Amino acid sequence: MRSVLGTPRRGGAVQRLVSLAFLIAIVAALIPTATRLWRPDSASNTIPAPPSSIYLPLMRKPDGQPLPPIRAAFDYSWFPGAWNQQGIYPYTHYTPTLGYYDSSNQAIIRQHIAALEYAHIDAGIAAWWGQGTITDQRFPLLLAAAHGSPVHWTIYYEPEGDSDPTVGQIRADLIYLRDHYSTDPSYLRIDGRFVLFVYATSGDGCAMAGRWKQANTVGAYIVLKVFSGYRDCASQPDGWHQYAPAKAADREGNFSYSISPGFWKVGEEPRLARDLPQWSANIRAMMASGATFQLISTFNEWGEGTAVESATQWASASGYGAFLDALHANGETGPTPTASPTPTASPTPTASPTATHTPTPPPTPTPSPTPTPAPDPVLVGAGDIAGCSSTGDEATAALLDQIPGTVFTTGDNVYSSGTAKQFANCYDPSWGRHKARTRPAPGNHDYGTAGAAGYFDYFGPLAGEPDKGYYSYDLGAWHIAVLNSNCSAIGGCAAGSPQEQWLRADLAAHSAACTLAYWHHPLFSSGLHGNSSSMQAIWEALYAYAADVVLNGHDHDYERFAPQDPNGVADPAHGIREFVVGSGGKSHYPFLGWPIANSEVRNDNTFGVLKLTLHPASYTWEFVPEAGQTFTDAGSEPCR
Question: In terms of C-beta density within 10 A (0-12 exposed, 13-18 middle, 19 or more buried), how is residue 407 classed?
Answer without folding.
Answer: buried
